[in-house]
Design goal:
Number of strands: 25
Strand content: over 45%
CATH class of the largest domain: Mainly Beta
CATH architecture of the largest domain: Beta Barrel
CATH superfamily of the largest domain: membrane protein fhac: a member of the omp85/tpsb transporter family
Distance between the termini: 85 Å
């Protein structure tokens, strides 16, 4: 026994000596490495090399016999666009935060399947930087077909996301919709991310069918990077036609015209967190022929002042929404909004009021568990009277079971009290309750929860990846005159298949097939065919303009 104890003590001493030697060795390695190699934040940037790869690359597994022909039909992104997005220049000191932010900004454009920045040591105090990008396929002639909610649509679209390699997006669409017997619908979208190589963005959107026409023109200077100091812009909206008001007994069509002008100016400071002060001015000029269809804040001028801050950290992830690499942000966003509302056009005494609102968001991620929570709300008030009160709670989360499986959930609650005028929130296949008819469930407030088990098995056929989903949806809507406890909950569950095109980005890169079981009707309702995931499993903490919270209306 003593011998064993002695041997045990001896082994402990040897182990302690070993750890002491390793500690001393680690210190010397750290010391001499710091002496021999200069700190990265003191190194100067030498040459900046832009390496642009086409959609198909000969060194990749997806190279095939017609790849050269396919590449010849695609104009690769112009080098100047990538250069304009760089947050560093030759001769600058290397700043790793700016390198990472440049990668994120280039990914965010949706023009690339891969973005990398590689440092190459030129000498002891200088590094060359190699920026590597690979384009996605940007010219998408599409045959459109969708089915869900006991309705269908079919048609065609030609979408060019990167016109002549200039990052200009242009989309033209013709679609036949069976919903409400809408019939043919046309839509055109133009997006200039950097209009004439400036800091300004131009967005134009026009959509028309036999019931309504919606038009928007937006010109603004965005916060392009963490160090951008100012953002400002102008947004013009002109919508007119007839709106569907949905009811259990009888739907109605109400004639309307909506015009609005919104302009804003925001100043940013970069401290420990990023801080914003934003002023916004809006004029609404509205005409609704049916008196019962008048909405809160129609024909009003709105002045808002917001004090906001955001904190962001990023983690590169994949196999959450798709197989593509995404940047998952964690941190938070908060904003306090003060405002004044005054009547404009048709006089309404209650449109002379003050407004108080706010937003708060926070998130957490530890490689396995992700949680996101957000609240927003506001109320108009005049003397001791408060009205047009709204509150919303949003929750997102997922738990990774392993590298290919996760359980994801989304929760959304939207409630209104003493809200003047018409409100309409819809709960159906388009708004998150799979297997239910379009537009049959509508109210002033809404609660929705989606739960999905997502499986990414790394199955691949050429440029296509596949994943499977099992889901459960729950939701309810109710009127202001009803108690929430008396509202009826609706449920659906089912299985789904996702097909991903790794040469595209955005909603067009995902084709979704779901088989939904309607619990109310106790039957398999239908096979749903559409694009995009039902929901993104993580939230985005980013700058948001101040607004009147809850002033939304779901239409067809």
């Amino acid at each position: 026994m003593q011998k064993n104890l002695f041997e045990y003590s001896y082994s402990i001493k040897n182990l302690l000596k070993f750890f002491r030697k390793m500690l001393v060795l680690s210190f010397y390695i750290l010391f001499f490495s710091q002496q021999l190699a200069p700190a990265l934040d003191k190194v100067q940037i030498g040459k900046i090399n832009i390496n642009r790869k086409n959609v198909f690359d000969s060194s990749s597994k997806d190279w095939f016999f017609a790849a050269k022909l396919a590449n010849s039909l695609h104009i690769i992104t112009q080098e100047y666009f990538i250069t304009d997005e760089l947050l560093f220049s030759e001769g600058d000191t290397v700043d790793t935060d700016k390198l990472y932010e440049t990668v994120r900004n280039l990914r965010k454009t949706g023009l690339f399947s891969e973005v990398k920045i590689v440092l190459d040591s030129a000498d002891d105090d200088k590094y060359d930087i190699n920026v590597q990008t690979q384009d996605v396929w940007s010219t998408n002639p599409e045959i459109l077909f969708g089915k869900g909610g006991n309705s269908y649509n079919f048609g065609g679209r030609i979408a060019e996301l990167n016109l002549a390699g200039t990052a200009t997006a242009l989309s033209l669409e013709a679609l036949f919709r069976s919903e409400n017997n809408i019939g043919m619908q046309g839509r055109g979208i133009l997006l200039l991310r950097r209009a004439f190589r400036s800091e300004y963005t131009l967005y134009a959107d026009l959509r028309a069918n036999k019931y309504r026409t919606d038009g928007e023109l937006l010109f603004y200077k965005p916060f392009r990077s963490i160090e951008t100091e100012y953002s400002y812009g102008l947004d013009l909206v002109n919508n007119f036609g007839r709106d569907f008001i949905y009811s259990i007994t009888k739907d109605s069509l109400n004639t309307f015209r909506e015009r609005s002008l919104t302009t804003w100016f925001s100043k940013s400071w970069l401290k420990k967190d990023r801080i914003f002060i934003t002023g916004l001015f809006q004029l609404n000029n509205d005409l609704r022929l049916q008196h019962e269809s008048i909405r809160a804040f129609d024909n009003s001028g709105i002045v808002l002042l917001a004090f906001s801050s955001v904190a962001q950290n990023y983690t590169s992830v994949s196999k959450l929404n798709s197989y593509h690499t995404e940047d998952l942000p964690t941190g938070g966003w908060g904003s306090a909004v003060l405002g004044k509302v005054f009547p404009y056009g048709d006089y309404n005494a209650l449109n002379s009021c003050y407004y108080l609102g706010g937003q708060a968001e926070a998130s957490y991620f530890d490689d396995q568990l992700y949680l996101f929570g957000g609240v927003e709300g506001g109320s108009a008030f005049r003397s001791s009277l408060s009205y047009d009160t709204y509150a919303s709670v949003t929750g997102l989360g997922f738990y990774r079971l392993d590298g290919s499986m996760l359980i994801a959930s989304r929760f959304k609650s939207q409630s209104a009290w003493n809200w003047r005028g018409e409100r309409q929130l819809i709960l159906d296949n388009d708004y998150g309750l799979r297997g239910y008819r379009l537009n049959r469930l509508a109210g002033d407030s809404r609660l929705l929860n989606n739960l999905e088990f997502r499986y990414f098995p790394d199955w691949k056929f050429w440029i296509l990846n596949f994943s499977g989903v099992a889901f459960y949806d729950l939701g309810t809507v109710w009127k202001q005159s009803e108690k929430f406890t008396n509202s009826r909950f609706h449920h659906s569950l089912g299985l789904g298949l996702r097909i991903y095109d790794d040469k595209q980005n955005g909603t067009a890169a995902v084709f979704r097939i779901d088989v939904a079981y309607n619990v109310d009707e106790k039957r398999i309702a239908e096979i749903i065919l559409t694009s995009s995931q039902m929901f993104n499993v993580f939230g985005i903490h980013d700058f948001k303009l101040p607004q009147i919270f809850g002033n939304i209306f779901d239409h067809e």
